[in-house]
Every structure is written in structure tokens, then in C-alpha cells.
Amino acid sequence: MADPILAPVGPARRRLVSAAGAARLRWWASVSVAAVIVLAVVFVPLFAELDQRIVHLDDRLLGPSPAHPLGTDELGRDTLLRCVYGMRVSLLVGVVAAVVSTVIGTVVGATAGALGGWTDRVLARLVDVLASVPHLLLGIILVALFRPGPGAVIVSVGLTHWLSTARIVRAEVMSLRTRPFVDAAIAGGASRRRVTMRHFVPNVAPQAALAAVLAVPHAIWHESALSFLGLGMPPHLASLGTMIEDGRQALLTGHWWPAFAPGLFIVVPTLAIAGLAGAWRERIDPRGPGELRL
Amino acid sequence: MGAPGGVRDHVVNLRLRGLSVLVARRLAAAPVVLLAVTFLVFALGAASPFDPVRQYAGDAAFTASARNLEQIRAGLGADRPFVAQWWSWLGDALTGDLGASRSLRMPVGQVIGERLGWTVLLVSVAFVLTLVGGMALGILAARRRGGVLDRCVTGAMYTLEAAPVFWLALGAVWLFALRLDLLPAGGLTDTSASVVTADQVGAHLVLPAAVLAVSQLPWFVLYIRQSLIAALAEEHVLGARARGLRERTVLLRHALRSALLPFLTLLGSRVPELITGALLVETVFSWPGVASATVQAALALDFPLLTALTVLATAAVLIGNLAADVLYGLADPRVALDG
Q1: pLDDT tens-digit profile of A223-240?
Q2: Judged by CB atoms within 8 Å, which residues 267-306 of B form the interface with A?
Q3: How far apart are the first and last CA of chain B?
Q4: Tell me, what's the ipTM?
Q5: Which of A130, A136, B48, B97 is most buried, most CB within 10 Å of its CB?
Q6: What is the mean pLDDT of chain B?
Q7: Which residue is closest to B150 within chain A, CA to CA?
Q8: Residues 17-46 of A with CB under 8 A from B
Q9: pTM summary value
Q10: Residue B126 in contact with residue B274, Cβ under 8 Å?
Q11: Closest by CA position to B207, among listed B173, B164, B246, B161
Q12: Which phi and psi (to 5°) does residue B106 adopt?
């Protein structure tokens, strides 16, 4: 509430914690969840090796217990350990795909914004065409045609998720073009390339970095949807989406944990990343809406 | 306001003219976008390792002679450059011949004819559910910003936004079909049923429509909440409060009105998300619509069906965008319509 006079004069509002306290709580919760995930993904494989080929048929579909906190799957493998490995695959694919899409988006957006004119118009039409095909549909076509696998998934996410980054970067460059320091650089004899590389790109970098961070959950989501449809990662590189698809059979016989656990490993990190991105957004643009958005 | 009727009519006429120019321009652009999308799909097909001849021949491709394979290739028209293939597909499509679906073994037109209705049914029921639920939850959350209810609703929405829809769908199957045994787990009718009856379809529709609706809910709730909070800070709401109107009247009659306007106009732009949701929900629930057919076509590399369904999805997105623009132009007189 910016102005207390305009605040609703309804019944007194009770708050559990102050707004600043809630923001701090959200920040620390996001940081610690993200830290736990990163540590788990990096260090757990050093101590507990998971061989996807080894099966323990005696231990199949055991419920959650102290030995297996999230139970075992239909081949007797520990669900929690598989989730950590699946998270590793999903996170790696997600981060690489997010970087790819951010690079494409930044290059296209900066080119359109810096050159303007016909280039801008042609690129804008290209964005319009790509934006009118639903992302997942285009992703499905790409992966189906280029054979499922990590490469195809990364390309599919990278090629479908750069549109919003390109729009943001283009708008930012357009507004930078009208600033006095750019006029000064041009008056000082700087070439178009130099103005772009020295003035435009560094100034849009925070926005692009934010877009990249926000693209990670999207990429993970997209990858898991493709894998769930049987168009993503191969079985020996099971991602969280593959695991949910695997768990579907067990679910129909009443064993919920093999499908439930990997979904949890998608939801919690996504919320943590959104929390981090929200805090970063408030730092680079304090006037903008302070709500965390996905 | 006492403005002479003639001037008013003139202004209205000008706006309607601007609106029809916008519609005409969008309608002229739509075929170009659709053409570009089909071209893109054919170009991707040509660039990919996918070979229609090997698919056609199946296992026989490994033993067949090179000459036979070439004959098949020529027979399928796959020996021509992809632009020529695209052009002849386009010619056929414009005369109503969309080719034959290999995976479903029937003409593509027939596949779409049989399945489109089920998808429209599913998506529209889900859309209405989301709209009603989203408004209710959004209003509840915005009523006391920062209160317990607001925190709960907002937190739940962020969590839902993060949850994959197919995961929610599996959860719903487990809870309502397996544990509680209230609703069927998938399909359009019971497997024993020989005819499609309304109550069968109704019972089978509940879970997929509810899951699709819930997956769309976060955007609706958060958007309504946000714009209602903004509206509550506006001066006309302060004026209404100053007149001593009841809280409910202020909220629903004064604040909600100005908050809903931008929201209603944005509904058309939700089509891509609905299609994405339908792709996954229809697959989980084996709903016999066009979205599950798209996934099957992709898995089987059924190129004619995949192309036609992509065009269909793109057309739906374009119609949604057009509706959003028209409503926006009609609702807000400040929007320039000649853009």
C-alpha cells in the first residue's frame, strides 16, 4: 500500500508478519531451498551411485519407509535417489536450454532494436508467426522430427522460448536509443557495432539475466512435459518427466509415490527460482510490482 | 453530458470504422501467418533426419533394393524439393484434401471432423469453470490484501502455477478414480458402452475439465486479484466509500467493474495456454479430441495429420488474439484502433 489514506477502510486487517518480513522470509526460504537442491544435485551422486540398470525385484513398490523415504519404484530402485538424479538431468537441460533461448532472444532483440527499420519489421513478423504456434506444440514437432534426446529437447526449448526475451530486449534497446549518452557516443564517432556492444548490451544485461533465470523453470516444465509424452529424455537419462510417466503404471495399481515424488521435485525448485527471480526483479526495478511472478 | 446526438454518433461511427479496419487487417494477415506456419513445418520436416520412405516401407526398408526405395520415394513425391512438396500439399489442402493420416488410417479431414467437437467441449467447459472459480478466488483474495485468506490463495496459486498439469491430472486420477472411486479415470465412455450417451460423456468429462480448469486458474486468480487491488485504490472507489456504501457494494459494483474490463478483453489471448493444457490433459485421460491426436501424430511421425493439426491450433490462436484486440478496442476508447 503506497498511500495509507487510500487503503481500504474495511475491517482492521490482521497480518501474520509485516510485508517486509514476509519478503525477507520468502527470500531466505528460496535461497536455502535452491542451495539444498544445488548441493544435493552436485554431491549426492558422489556418495550414492545410482545404476539405472540394477533392479531389486524383492523391493519393488515399497511404500515410504526410513530406508526409502519416498518409497521404491516398480523395479525396486529408491525413488528419492532417482529424483535427485532426475533433477540433475532436468536442471542441466533446463539451464542449458534457458541460456540458449536467452542468447537467441538477446541477439534478435538487440539487432531489431539497434538496426530498426526493415530488419526490425521482418524480425517482428517472425516473432508474430512463431508466437502464434503454441510452444509445446512446436516443441513436440521439433523433438518428434529430430529424434528424442537431450539435444533435441534443448533445441526445442531454446527455439520456442526466446520470443519474450527478444521483446523485452528490443523494447529496452529502443528506449536506450533515445538517451543522451547514446547520442554522445554517436556524436563522438562510435560505430553502430560499438554502440551496440558497449552501450546497449551491457545495459540490457540485467534484464536478460532475469529472463534467463525465469526461463529455467519454463525449460524444466517444457522438458518434463516432452519426456512425459515419451518425446524427451531416454530411459538411461531419466528426467523428472520420464519418472512421472514411469510412475503412471504404478499409480494405476494404487502406488502413488513413484509418480508423486518427481512432481514435487519440479514444484519446489520452481517456487524457489521464482522467489529468487522476484527478489532480483525488485532490486533492478524497485518501482515495478513487487509480487513474485512466474 | 449534453453532447449533441450528431457528434456522438459521429464519434461512434469513427470508432466502428477504425475497428473494422483493424479486423480487416488482422483477417488479411491471418492467411499469411498460417502459410508461414505450414512452410515452417515442411522446412523442419525437410531439415530433419525423418525419412517418409523408410517410414512407409517399415522393416522392409532394410532388405529392399535401392531401386525399390527410389520407386517408393517417387511414388510418395518425396524426391522433390520440400518447397514443391509444400506447394502441392497447399493446393490439395485448399481444395479440402488434407491427405490421409497414417497412424489413424483415415483421411485427415475425417479425423478432425470426428475429434474437434470433443476438444471444443472439453476446453469450453474448462474455460467456464476457470472463469467462475478465478473470479471468486480473485475477489476473495483481493478483499483483504495481505490477510490470511489472501496469503493462502496467492500461495496456492503460485504452487499450482509451478505444478505440471499432467502431474495434477495423475493426482486427480489417483484420488477421484482410484481411492474414492467416484469418477471414471479416462476415455469418453465406459469400455462396455456401445453408444455415446450424454450422461456417460458427462461423467467422463468431469475430471479432465476440472484438471484443465485448475491448471489455468493461477493466471486468472492472480490477474483479477492484481487489477482489483489497483481498482480499490482508484478515486471513484474512494468516492463510493465516502458515500457510505456497503463494503460489498463498493467491491462488486464499483471496484470490480473497472477491474474486469481489461481482464475480459485479455481472455482471447489465453488460447495458447489452453491448447498446451489440452495436449497434456487429453493424453492423460485418453480423451478422443484433436489435442491427443496431435500427440499421437507426433509420436507416430504422422506428417499429414501433424501439419493439419498445427494449422488448426495456429488458427485458434489467431482467432483468440483477434477477439482480444476487438474487445480491447471496443472496451477502452483510448486505444488507437489504426495501429
Answers
A1: 899 989 888 888 778 888
A2: 272-273, 275-276, 279-280, 283, 294-295, 298-299, 301, 306
A3: 29
A4: 0.83
A5: A136
A6: 83
A7: A15
A8: 19
A9: 0.83
A10: yes
A11: B173
A12: -160, 165
